[in-house]
Each structure stands twice: as structure tokens, then as C-alpha cells.
Design goal:
The protein is an alpha+beta fold. Helices cover 52% and strands 22% of the residues.
């Protein structure tokens, strides 16, 4: 029980630390990796319930966490990439991330879609 409580405290601490970072590319990737790992571990834990011998399949948690970390990292890299990025005189071309926001104004719902087409760092 002490180990479980320690893991829970560590997860809450790491989630609060990552939200304090500025929205830089590295922090977005780190945050998505962390969320993917936690989600994968939860899914792996839930999968144990459907096995005949749950105590023999505890490695599902590790497999879920590892898969979640990989998927979270890939998504973080995709999310933090613009179509054209100019940095230190170099131009980089990549696939843009499309972001969709739903906003409510004056009782009406508006869907807003954005994509970073050009990003310049000064």
C-alpha cells in the first residue's frame, strides 16, 4: 500500500511540474510522453481484470506504460511541429499540427481550427 501511495504522489507531482513549464517544444513532448505513460499504465492495469490469473499478468502494466510512452512521444513530436520553421537562418519544413477549439459566445457555439503554417524564433 505504501508503494502504491508513493507512486500516486510521484505521478501527481510530475503532472504539476510539467504544467509549470513554458510551452516549448521539449515541454510539449515531455508532457505528452508523461500522459501517454500514465494512460498506458492505467489501460494495462484494466486489462489485468480480464485475465484468468491476474497476479501472473502484472507485466501488462509495464507493457501498457511502455506503449503509452512511445505513442505519447510520437504524438508530442507531431503536436509541436509547424509547417515551416525558421530558426538561426535555417528553414525546416514539416507537417503542421491542426488544433480545434470549441468556444461558446453569446449562447452560440463556434468551432475554431488553427494550424501553425510559419513559426519564426527570434
Amino acid at each position: 500500500m505504501k508503494k502504491l501511495m508513493g507512486v500516486f504522489v510521484l505521478i501527481v507531482f510530475l503532472m504539476s511540474v510539467t504544467s509549470a513549464f513554458a510551452e516549448s517544444r521539449g515541454s510539449v513532448i515531455l508532457q505528452d510522453t508523461l500522459y501517454g505513460t500514465i494512460t498506458g499504465a492505467i489501460i494495462g492495469t484494466a486489462a489485468i481484470v480480464f485475465t484468468e490469473e491476474p497476479e501472473d499478468n502484472l507485466d501488462y502494466i509495464a507493457y501498457g506504460a511502455a506503449t503509452g510512452a512511445i505513442v505519447g512521444t510520437v504524438f508530442g513530436v507531431y503536436e509541436s511541429t509547424a509547417l515551416v520553421q525558421i530558426e538561426d537562418g535555417e528553414t525546416k519544413v514539416a507537417m503542421p499540427t491542426i488544433r480545434t477549439n470549441i468556444k461558446k459566445r453569446d449562447g452560440k457555439t463556434a468551432v475554431e481550427t488553427k494550424a501553425d503554417v510559419v513559426r519564426v524564433n527570434f
